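We give the chain.
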Amino acid sequence: MRYAQLKAFDAVARLLSFSKAADRLGITQPAVTLQIKALEEENDVSLFLRQGGGVSLTAAGLALFDHTSRMFAVEEEIREFLTDRRNLSAGELVLGADGPHVALDLIARFKMLYPGIHVKLELGNARSVWRDVTESRVEAAIMANPPTDDRVTVQPLLRSGMMAIMPLDHPLAEGGDVGLADFAASFLIAREQGSNTRRVLEAAMKSGGYGFDPAMELGSREAVREAVAVGMGVGCVYARETVGDSRIAARPIRELTNSNLDTLVFLSRNSNRRVIRSLQDCAKGLSIDLGKNDE
């Protein structure tokens, strides 16, 4: 039993005509006849009654037609699904991100252009998001300062600086920017291992000769912000993460200006996929708009 045989049978059963089936399939009538004959002989079954100038289905033919009609209906649904997916009018896009801010800006832009695509965002720290990208758990990710890897394409989005955050009554809350020396002398609340924020701050402090010995380690930027807000110490986040909390003050860390590069990353082997190309186009436009907003 071959696909072509079932296709020929279904067409004849649907149209009750060998010649019309041949026209529908774009092949000759003898070719249709040969496919039906082979199907009947190989399976020792009679599928059509040939009477005069017409044909009708036998009991076995009716039973098989019930199966093939459902089979080819599902085939058509699959074709429509794949076409919609290719045209980005339906389907799901799974993204990763090490923070919500730039990621949501990109998703909002993408959804304006492709409202039929359901977008799922998986948040994690830099280490877990990178692992999700390289192990194909997500189709792309928005993350800061990704490592160099020949398997992965990196598209820059936005540069930003790191900010020290502290309670409003903290001495560092007065004045302008702060230095790593000021930061090192305070009760430091740091992010967990695997965080991009932690990695950049730790490297800068060690490079500056200050060492790195946080008094407290917390597993998310939200936890760090909350600990700072209730007066437990000082922390650090990137510039776009300081908005919207009147309980804390934020000051630039002068040694870490432009230390953060948010990027769109994806496996290079997927670069020709329509959804990835569309994400790249959205990322280019977003990068321009964010750059203007930060001027």
